[in-house]
Amino acid sequence: MSELAGALKRTVEERFGHVRVRGEISGWKRAASGHGYLCLKDESAVLDGVMWKGVLQGLRFQPQDGLEVVATGRLTTYPGRSRYQIVIDRLEIAGAGALMALLDQRRRALAAEGLFDADRKRPLPFLPEVIGVITSPTGAVIRDILHRLADRFPRRVLVWPVAVQGDSAAGQVAAAVRGFNAMQGETRPDLLIVARGGGSMEDLWAFNEEAVVRAVAASDIPVISAVGHETDTSLCDFAADVRAPTPTAAAEIAVPVRSDLLAGARQLAVRMERCALRTVDLRRERVENLGRRLPTPRALLGLARQRADDVGERLPRALVVRAERARASLQAVSGRLRPGLLGHRLADSRNALDRMWRLAASLNPEAVLKRGYAIVRDGGGNVLVSADQARHQPRLSIQFADGVVDAKQGRNGGSAPGRSKADAAADAQTELF
Length: 433
Hints:
The protein contains 14 helices and 16 strands. The protein is of the alpha/beta class. It has four domains: 2-94, CATH 2.40.50.140; 126-256, Rossmann fold (3-Layer(aba) Sandwich); 265-293; 356-432, no CATH class. A five-stranded mixed β-barrel has the order 1-2-3-5-4. A five-stranded parallel sheet has the order 7-6-8-9-10, with helices on both faces. The protein has a three-stranded antiparallel sheet with strand order 12-11-16. Helix 4 (140-152) packs parallel to helix 8 and helix 5 (169-182) packs parallel to helix 6 (210-217). The chain is rod-shaped. Mean pLDDT is 78; it is low at 381-388 and 393-433.
């Protein structure tokens, strides 16, 4: 049996060396060893296929079920299962139409999940401090980006080297996006640029892979997609916050022109100075206009000065008139105060006072005090004292015409033995009028 299987294997390989077949991929799987296994089928036949690890890494797209491809390789058999198969050396998508159909199908599926929605887009920082660039470190793309950034506004640039073509490109680009987002501190970029030069659709296929699209859409750092030239479009462009037509344009979008900013700042400074001066001029003009409407100090003080002069002229005459009137009044009063008339009035008052003394002397002193109030005069002058107050005085005496009477002991018919009326009157604390 082994000899027959070997003979069949040699016959097939000799009869069918290199072949080129077209079919639809079915049952695609990748083994742990890195080799890929699939079936190519059309309307009426199925052909097993195998791709070794080295060939699979060189593919520009990711094989998947339902994709129509053209496989080039050598036909052989697998004696362990008695099946013939094709060992694929080269795998291409069968025409641009099929590739575009696959791209459109993937785009609709990812868009349905909301990965391309406009509300997910984030604004780019005006002037990022650190810019992260995800691209090949050996291509012309990174040199163009660095040169353009240096011309416009020099910034700190961190480059994450990745493969931009082949089977491993998609995984490396997605890992770079996640790696930049995981960074902390001052080295964490404020902006990411995913860049690649131009090429065919197959060359750019890594940026259409689902892993890259999801990583870009989930990035917390704003992303600029600069994949290919202006006519090239990838799914990474839809997921990114901003799409740049070229890598050089991405650098222009990332930073402003420093010279333009300086010129704008100088222009704003000039405008600010002009505005300040204009404001001062307007205020000065307003104050001058108000000052012209105000009267001069001479005009303000003219009326007061005139009134002062008028009063100054009238004051001496008024003083003279006032003095003359006062002198006339004094003369009129002095004419009434004749010496004889004044003496008669004093004599009449003294006589009336004597009559009051004699009347008081004829009354009982205790009766006078019981009447309620009495007119009492002491050494300091005349005051009004009630009868109760007079009773509580320790030595309250009343002066009568014929002697001194103690208010509590009754009337004394004369002066105390050995004392005159004058001495008794001096000792009296009060006198009744």
